[in-house]
Amino acid sequence: MSAEATNPEAHPEARPELRRRSRTRLDLRRLGRAALLGPPSRDRLPDAIGHVAEAHRAHHPDADLSILRRAYLLAETSHRGQMRKSGEPYITHPLAVTLILAELGAETTTLTASLLHDTVEDTEVTLEQVRAEFGDEVCFIVDGVTKVEKIDYGAAAEPETFRKMLVATGNDVRVMSIKLADRLHNMRTLGVMRPDKQARIAKVTRDVLIPLAERLGVQALKTELEDLVFAILHPEEYERTRALIAAHAGENDPLPAIADSVRAVLRDAGIAAEVVVRPRHFVSVHRISRTRGELRGSDFGRILVLVAENADCYGVLGELHTCFTPVVSEFKDFIAVPKFNLYQSLHTAVATPDGHVAEVIVRTRQMHRVAEAGVVALGNPYTTGEAADCDEERVDPTRPGWLSRLLDWQQSAPDPDTFWTVLRAELAQDREITVFGVDGAAATPRALTLPAGASCIDAAYAQYGEAAHGCIGARVNGRLTSLSSRLSDGDTVQPLLAHDASSGPAADWLEHATTPAARIAISSWLEAHPDDAAATTPAARAPLSVVGARGGGGNAVADLPNAHVRLAGCCTPVPPDAVAGFVVRGGAVTVHRVHCPAVAQMRAVGRTSVAVHWRATADCRVTLVAESFGRPHLLADLTEAIAREGVEVVSATVEPPVEQRVRHTYTLQLPDAAGLPALMRAMRDVPGVYDVSRA
Asked: What are the b/e assignments for 1-19, b being 16+ CB within 10 Å?
């Protein structure tokens, strides 16, 4: 979108007849397609500042354009004499960027900063001058999009520039809006650069800026950026797709006829709606061709239905599904469940009697505005007035979940290479889930936004930060589970933390952590504690057994002279349990609790029953099973808890961990059977132990 600097005094507001004579509004999609199919004539550049004013007034009729005139004058005089690589005056670039944003409906402050976005970086203008002339808000945005000095940062200048922009975006999302429009215009004019530089810029655009445009909901910029990147990085596939679209242009397109049928159906139903056919962009056609093979005429576009109210969207859906054959698998309700980038629409597909299948998108006009312009359409979330010109409740877009996570973990990634690598990986996550973190001290669960595929480990670090190093397990929807468990949208998760401050993560946590914050925190701890990391890494091993010297029947006495009495290991009876004795091979008497399943088996095989009673002494022997999450020093802590209760360990067996769970079996000699409940409570209080039961 080329632009020419002309007399800044020739504005529509100075000539009422120009304001009344409305100009056809520019269509970014059409201009993007035209930019790809061939450059326009450059014999005469349009009156760009007039176009900016007219486009801005189309969205904000009462906007004061005096500040835009002042910003234009400063930008034009400061860039005077500078030329772009294409040979055009440099002022055409900030004007084109500003026109892109004006067409999307950006408010006056964004356009002012856009006109000035390169002045501090490329001219003698300083931030102090911008602040004095245009205020703190414009100054902050201009500073946010200004690159860091390459002489100071060297090879790290690009990642550090993006870090600076993203941090600034956390405070004002308009910073990234200008950066996206800036990159779009640069991509449109990239043909004057060397092929290797084109490819490098296109790859950064693909890996970082297109995902950011998607997350900020600016589909009008995202789709054109995708097509421009596609043309540079995949020229052969791009040419095939271009030829496919050109060939389709000469065929009979069924979509206009289907659109007419939809209009008739909605008109008969009394639903006021605008029905248009929207061609797919190049990348979309390429993706469809790869999944569907040979394309039909209806595959080259979709039908868009615009209505006034949310309820009308569902009315349209009902009429479509009644009068046409719906393709049920294609239905998606993004109104009831919006995407994480604010996108709302109903998606469906219907089949016509002649066999054509058309995809249909239904949304309100406000939804359409947000779907195309994303956060640009929302203006400044901190003010009311001209930016808040919609009746619906405004959504603050400056701190969505993904941006909050990014701002958190970037503080722990001082190395530019680490930041750059992790940033690309984070932006590659294109879906999010919301889970609810439960904290015993909090009255209500805390909503946590995580990337799809996140585990309990990610939730723990999102909720507790570095305190999650001591996480020993989790409850998901009230049920105990391992830390590696993947979470689903709407899950309630309660990370369980050890009280031991020295506890740390195991090396295998990195296999299950997906969020950068969790991975960076775990890696940093493992690097700082190499010895502890080795100790926390589980290794396959045989069950650990510790056997004491005592055995026998404890204080159980059988009514059989000189008989050797022993307590059954299957049920470990203790006073005052009701017990039964049976003579086994060798003349010994085995004592069971009366409800033990082995009692019925003994009687079934004809074992001799012997009366058994307890001595007056209170000591007893019992076998307890402790279920726990694996962590360092757990066996020592359990043994210490048992010793504090004055109980002797006769034997202990620790089974190898399975999914981070460990099973401990203890045979214990109690000085008093009455102390058994207190002993079991003490063992349950050991961090990591979630259940203690009789064997």
From this structure: bbbbbeebeebbeeeeebe
Residue 117 has phi, psi (to 5 degrees) of -65, -20
**How many Cβ atoms from other residues are within 10 Å of residue 425's Cβ?**
13
Q: How many residues does the chain have?
A: 695
Provide the pLDDT confidence category of residue 612 given band limits of 50, 70 and 90. Answer: confident
Tokens describing residue 453: 């595929």
Burial of 512 (0-12, 13-18, 19+ CB in 10 A): buried
pTM over 0.70: no
Q: Specify the residue for token string 């910003």.
A: 71
Q: How far apart are CA 694 and CA 10, in angstroms?
A: 90
Catalytic (active site) residue 359: no
Which ranges of 375-441 does DSSP label H, i.e. alpha helix? Answer: 375-378, 401-410, 416-427
Peptide bond into 657 cis (omega under 30): no
Residue with structure tokens 């085995």? 590
- For residues 473 and 481, is the Cβ–Cβ distance under 8 A? yes
| Whole-number average pLDDT of the chain | 79
Q: Name the active-site residue from 43, 76, 88, 121.
A: 121
Tell me the β-bridge partners of 628. 662, 689
Is-contact 514 425, C-beta < 8 A?
no
3-class SS of residue 14: helix
pLDDT of residue 250: 65
* Residues 94, 47 contacting (CB under 8 angstroms): no
Lowest-confidence segment of 63-72, 452-461, 475-484, 493-502 by average pLDDT: 493-502
Whether the CB-CB separation of 47 and 14 falls below 8 Å is answered with: no
Which uninterrupted H or E stretch holds 624? strand 620-629
Radius of gyration of the chain (CA): 35
CA distances from 529 to 510, 532, 651 (A): 15, 5, 33
Catalytic residue, chosen from 13, 122, 532, 645, is 122
Q: How far apart are CA 223 and CA 233, in angstroms?
A: 15
Band the pLDDT of 618: cuts 50, 70, 90: low
Active site residue 133: no
Report the candidate in 162, 37, 141 with the shortest Cα–Cα distance to residue 97: 141
More confident residue, 131 or 403: 131
What is the C-alpha separation between 544 and 517, in angstroms, rounded?
36
Quote the CA–CA distance of 587 and 584 in Å, as a whole number.
6
Q: pLDDT tens-digit profile of 270-319?
A: 999 999 999 999 998 888 888 777 778 788 899 999 999 999 999 999 99
Locate 144 and state its tokens.
Answer: 């946010």
Reduced to 3 states (helix: H, G, I; strand: E, B; else coil), residue 119 is helix
pLDDT at 25: 41
